[in-house]
Amino acid sequence: MTIKIAGIEIGCSKPPFIIAEMSGNHNQSLARALELVDAAAKSGAHALKLQTYTPESMTLDINEREFCVSDPNSLWSGRSLYKLYGEACTPFAWHQQIFEHANKMGMIAFSTPFDDESVDFLEELKAPCYKIASFENTDIPLIRRVASTGKPLIISTGMATVAELDESVRAAREGGCNDLILLKCTSTYPAEPENTNIMTIPHMRDLFKCEVGLSDHTMGVGVSVASVALGATVIEKHFTLNRLDGGVDSAFSLEPDEMHRLVDESYRAWQSLGGISYGPTDAEKKSIVYRRSLYIVKDLKAGDTLNKENLRAIRPGLGLPPKYYEVALGRKVSRDVKCGTGLSWDLLI
User: Fold this and answer.
1) What is the pLDDT of residue 130?
2) Of all residues in the chain, what percent carry a pLDDT higher than 90?
3) How is residue 305 annotated by DSSP?
4) Per-residue pLDDT reduced to its tens digit, 197-235
5) 1: pLDDT strictly greater than 80
6) Each residue of 56-70: pLDDT tens digit?
7) What is the pTM of this model?
8) Are 221 and 193 in contact (CB under 8 A)?
């Protein structure tokens, strides 16, 4: 079974669906945003994702206490939440142009809304699907509102307990969502591989009976590629033109050549899954000849006895299998035999 988003099928029988997350890496430049669209398309990403909000819809304009990032290890330590969101937000006025340009470049464009106004706005743009961010995955009213559109819904699962996810999934389905994708996510920026726990992916698929992928904040592409082997059908990665250009999410974002590598390597990982298989594949059958087999390695006369000096297991594989070595030792040959003759039953007496 697959999910369709704007005509693209998503599921285990299809290659991984790769999402390039622009987030705030446009650095408040529409020209740069459009460059990001071009670069994501050229890298082979299937979709471009925005975030749709205003600072006012996210928090209060207070520059103290819990309204500032207090973690000294955070990329945004000491920053006011309001100012941070003001820097990172994508202006509503840019959305239509970005959506149209992504579509022109052959990509799906969609967004993460953070309030009802954002959903209404994205509905006007005919967004083909929606994403709920990890920090909003317990916002049941928002999930219900997005689900009511009837469009495919992707939910990041960062920080959520099983009980919380159960509430979110129920809200989505009861609200009208028939096509649901959960993304395993670790909400640290960047995330460390050892905290990513991608073994959760098949468990989540079995538990919630839906498509499951990975929203990956680790550096590089290794974790994302590994997730495909565990059944991830969607991979989301933050994307930038150049990490040295700065930007709120640039430090853990992929550059174009890395995104291209992710597209290629995740596809190879998916191709390698296949099914349960033993014995030679069609492609391997021509190689069977190069297995070891039993060969006469000295010229022999009729009646000579086979021993360890004149009988060996060597390549190629045109003689009897090596498992008959002990059976053949001590037997006599039925006729004259030249060195390099594969052993066969008719040579033994």
Assistant:
1) 98
2) 94
3) B
4) 999 999 999 999 999 999 999 999 999 999 999 999 999
5) no
6) 999 999 999 999 988
7) 0.89
8) no
Is the predicted pLDDT of residue 94 greater than 80, yes or no?
yes
CA 30 to chain centre: 29
Q: How far apart are CA 46 and CA 33, in angstroms?
A: 17
Fold of 14-53+89-273: TIM Barrel (3.20.20)
d(CA 201, CA 90): 31
Q: 247 falls in which pLDDT band (50, 70, 90)?
A: confident
Q: At what angle do helices 256-273 and 30-43 cross, to 10 degrees?
A: 30
User: Cβ distance 257 to 250 under 8 Å?
Assistant: no
Residue 114 CB partners (closer than 8 Å, separation 6+): 51, 52, 53, 57, 58, 133, 136, 142
- Which residues belong to CATH 3.90.1210.10 in the chain? 285-347
Reported as half-sphere exposure (CB side, CA atoms, 13 A), residue 324 has a value of 15
> CATH 3.20.20.70 region(s) of the chain?
14-53+89-273
Token couple for 236: 């989301």
Question: How far apart are alpha carbons 17 and 177 in whole angstroms?
Answer: 20
285-347 belongs to CATH 1.10.10.60: no
Nearest to 147 by CA among 180, 114, 115, 175: 175
Q: Residue 73: its pLDDT value, please?
A: 83
Torsion angle (degrees, nearest 10) of CA 234, 238, 243, 248: -170
Q: Taking a C-beta distance cutoff of 8 angstroms, is the pair 316, 333 a contact?
A: no
Closest residue by Cα to residue 21 from 209, 237, 190:
237
Residue 74 has pLDDT above 90, yes or no: no
Q: What is the 3-state secondary structure (H, E, C) of 244-289?
A: HHCCCCHHHCECHHHHHHHHHHHHHHHHHHCCCCCCCCCCCHHHHH
Number of other residues whose CB lies within 10 A of the CB of residue 131: 27
